[in-house]
Amino acid sequence: MNQLKYNFSDYNLNIATFISKEQFKIYSQSINKLSPLKNIIQTYKMTQNQYIELQAVPRIIENLPILSEQDMI
């Protein structure tokens, strides 16, 4: 049986792994199906960061110096 082999290396551990064409196809399809989750996760993180910043607004307002009418003239 003549199968194509692909060489993948883990650059952190310098380990080479040989997989078959079928295994690569399954891997590739999985990555393609999971890629939309990356966008959802990024959107969630951005929203979470904005929520944290929004929670800080009342504290910022409370710490502002109160101006008297004399100061505004």
Strand order of the largest sheet: 1-2
Write down the overall geometry: rod-shaped
Which secondary-structure class do the elements indicate?
alpha+beta
Q: What does the average pLDDT come to?
A: 77
Strand content: 15-25%
Extended strand count: 2
Instruction: State the end-to-end CA separation.
Output: 90 Å
How are the secondary structure elements laid out?
Blueprint: E1 5-10, E2 15-20, H1 21-62, H2 69-72
Antiparallel strand pairs: 1-2
What does this structure look like?
With 73 residues, this protein is α+β, with helices and mostly antiparallel strands. The chain has two helices and two strands; from the N terminus they run E-E-H-H. Helices cover 63% and strands 16% of the residues. A two-stranded antiparallel sheet has the order 1-2. A hairpin with a 4-residue loop joins strand 1 and strand 2. The longest helix has 42 residues, at 21-62. The termini are far apart.
List keywords for this structure.
two-stranded antiparallel sheet; alpha+beta; 2 helices; 63% helix; 73 residues; single chain
Q: In a nutshell, what does this entry contain?
A:
The chain is an alpha+beta fold and 73 residues long.
